Amino acid sequence: MTSHAQHSQLLFADIKEFSSRSDHAQLRARNDLYAEMRSAFTDERWRSCRHEDRGDGVLVVIPSDPDLPLETLFTDVLPRLEAGLGGRRRSDPLLRLRIAVHAGPVHRDRHGFAGHAVNHVFRLCDGAPLRQALDEATSDTAVLVSEAVHDTVVRAGLPGVEATTFHPVTFQVKETRARAYLHVPGDPACALRIAREAAPEPHGGRDDARHGGVSVSAGHSVHMDGAIVTAGDAQVTMPAAQRTRWWRGPRGESR
């Protein structure tokens, strides 16, 4: 592994419904993905990035470069990608992408890229809000950006980045629970609707959920074992967001 991590921009693009395709269709989808990504970045910018193939997607690692500032992803790259995918609809098989964007320290060894920032961008892409957005959007891309990216690019009000099209959501994948911002380039109403349906928890969500999440009133002694309350006249009240999370159980991990 490298002696020190390099701060990089991370973009992960994942093909929707990849595993349901035949082997031949998967190979074609992969070829089309790389063609569309090169076109969106432009050949020169694509060559300046590093890439790691993920089978049904590609991780793009963009080293710090004044010629490709992070806001360029939102003002140039992602709009070109959405336009390119939309232009395919007349004749080519449908190619729709979930896209996650993050930035942070990235390590590289002979096996590929590693580090918490890499883990986080993968989990952003696997989060329920992004999956729902691409299921419901009329566009061919849906984007989930980390809070770090939102703070440095979107909230900063950099030219060409419209902050009102990024909407806060929370997501949970494995042990990661975090806030992120949903953006659907070709269907901004979709992002707003999903964010309103699943309003994010107060900042610091995991700790907030752990403290004071359940209130109990009872006529006599109460015994609690996890989420089970036993008593004579016991009444349990819990917020709807927690009730949904506890009663439904964890989401599956399959793509």
From TrEMBL:
Q: What is this protein called in UniProt?
A: Adenylate/guanylate cyclase
Q: Which GO terms describe its biological process?
A: cyclic nucleotide biosynthetic process; intracellular signal transduction
Question: Tell me, what is one Gene Ontology molecular-function annotation carried by this entry?
Answer: adenylate cyclase activity
Start and end residues of each Guanylate cyclase domain: 9-125
Question: Where does the record locate the signal sequence feature?
Answer: none
> Native species of this protein?
Streptomyces sp. R17
| InterPro entries, per the entry | A/G_cyclase, Nucleotide_cyclase
